[in-house]
Structure formats: C-alpha cells, structure tokens
TrEMBL record:
A GO CC term assigned to this protein in UniProt: plasma membrane
All residue ranges annotated as the ABC transporter domain in the record: 2-249
GO biological process, one term: L-alanine transport
Superkingdom assignment: Bacteria
Native organism taxonomy: Bacteria, Bacillati, Bacillota, Bacilli, Bacillales
Organism: Effusibacillus dendaii
Protein name as catalogued: ABC transporter ATP-binding protein
Length: 253
C-alpha cells in the first residue's frame, strides 16, 4: 500500500532518518520502535508530508507522492495523530474534530470567512464524519464536553478520532498509549485492533513493548536514523542486533 524507498532526512549535519526502506502492507499493523532520538517521529513526519525528505521516495498505491504537503497526503488517505497537547483545550471535543478536519484537508479560508453554501454543506458533512469517528473510538458521549474536562485516556481516543474523521486509509499513531495506565493501555490496544478489523492500515510508534508485541503484524526497528531490523514480533524479540542496540540486552519476550 505504501512503499518507502531510501527515505532520508537531514537536519544540518544530523541524519535523523537514514535511507530507510519499508513496505507498509494493506490491512496490517506496522510498528516502528527504537530508542529516544532514533528518528521515529521524523519518519512519521516524512510519510505524512509534514516534512519534505532530503532524498528518497514515497509511493502510495502505485502513485509517487514524494514531497506532497500534509493536506494533500491527508486527502490521499494518510492521516496521523498528534500529541494530545495539540488539542484545543477550551473547545468541545466535536469542535476540535471539525476544526481539525478542515485544518488537515483544506487550504483556502475564503469559504470559511464568507460561509458559502458549499462551506456550510461541507461543515455538516464534517460534523457527521466527526460523530461517526467519535462513535468508533467510543467517545460519542464526550462530544459536547470541553477537551480540558476529559481524561488523558479520552484525549488519546479523541486524537485518534481526529485522524479517523478525515477518512484515511493509513493511520499513523504516534505513541497512542503514552502517559496512561495499564488498563487504559489495554483499552487502547483493543481500539487499534478494532481499527485493523475495520480495514484500516495502521502504523504505530509506541514505547510500550508488551503492547506492540501483542498487536503488530510487523515491526521495524530504528536506531540512530537507520533501520536495523524488520520482522514479526517473535523475529524481532529474538534478533541479536535489536537486543543489543535497542534493548541493551535486558529484554526478553
Ligand atoms: N525539526 C527538527 N530540527 C532539527 N532536528 C530535529 C528536528 N526534529 C527532529 N530532529 C532530530 O532528529 C533526530 C530524531 O528525532 P525524532 O524526534 O524523530 O526521534 P524519535 O525516535 O521520535 O524520538 P522519541 O522517542 O524521543 O520521540 C534527533 O536527533 C532530533 O534531535
């Protein structure tokens, strides 16, 4: 579904992502793991069009999408979640979803300023999509609550709903289980499984290894920007390079 070829991003002299190849298969959950600073978030920023690669190619369903900006990638079906700190705390959950949808998929503001008929129709469609996404993540009952008044776990679900409201084919989840407790982590893992069952292709960055080992179809391991391993969870947990470089030899599946 998404072919990533020799993707590279340099910041000055620092190579954050170094010639990474990966094939994200349709309907799979692909995890990207690695120590802090390994290049995981930069990798997501590259495939979502947030950053332009220094070199390399991105092929989405056979189409070359290298260098497309993020709003075009969103329209083409690649959506990413952001940290929950990017939500508007004082706005309601549903308004966050509607505004988020527009920010991610539109460029012009004229329609919004003049509230054209087309704009109003689109807004209504957005609202329906947003409610559908909230139902999917089991947060429909929170629609009219300000984000500031909901739990951290609920914010995580809202962040996922925000991505789902753009009707993506591929959803990039950046640490969906960061900063929440074990029970809530299990609930989120269930949600990711439900996404897969619903036909979404999922890429996930997550530090919680147990969760990843139980969820992922494939895992790619990054270290200092480079891919050092790729395989199924059981292959990765037995990979000597991974155990040494990433897990410091202390991890046993
Ligand atoms: N906008 C930027 N400008 C300059 N350097 C950056 C930028 N974004 C990331 N980097 C650098 O790129 C490298 C990879 O960072 P990145 O955030 O992608 O790693 P990560 O694997 O996501 O880490 P973490 O698990 O801590 O989130 C780091 O050395 C970081 O300092």
């Amino acid at each position: 579904m998404l072919k990533i070829e020799q993707l590279t991003k340099q910041f000055g002299g620092n190579v954050a992502v170094n010639s990474v190849d990966l094939e994200v298969k349709q309907g799979n959950i692909t995890a990207i793991i690695g120590p802090n600073g390994a290049g995981k978030t930069t990798f997501f920023n590259l495939i979502s069009g947030t950053f332009r690669p220094t070199s390399g190619r991105l092929i989405l369903e056979g189409q070359d999408v290298t260098n497309k900006p993020s709003y075009q990638m969103a329209r083409l079906g690649v959506a990413r979640t952001f940290q929950t700190t990017k939500l508007f705390e004082q706005a309601t959950v549903i308004d966050n979803l509607i505004v988020g949808h527009r920010l991610r998929t539109k460029t012009g503001l004229l329609g919004a300023l003049f509230r054209t008929k087309q704009y109003r129709q689109e807004e209504e469609k957005c609202r329906e999509k947003a409610m559908e996404a909230l139902r999917f993540v089991d947060a429909e009952q929170l629609a009219h609550r300000p984000v500031a008044n909901i739990s951290q776990e609920a914010k995580k679900r809202v962040a996922i709903a925000l991505a789902l409201a753009t009707d993506p084919k591929i959803v990039l989840l950046d640490e969906p289980a960061g900063g929440i407790n074990a029970d809530e982590t299990n609930g989120l893992a269930e949600l990711v499984r439900k996404m897969k069952q619903a036909g979404y292709t999922v890429c996930i960055i997550e530090h919680k290894m147990q969760m990843i080992m139980n969820l992922a179809d494939r895992i790619m391991v990054l270290n200092q920007g480079a891919k050092i391993a790729e395989g199924t969870p059981s292959e990765i947990s037995r990979n000597e390079t991974v155990i040494q470089a990433y897990l410091g030899g202390a991890y046993h599946a």
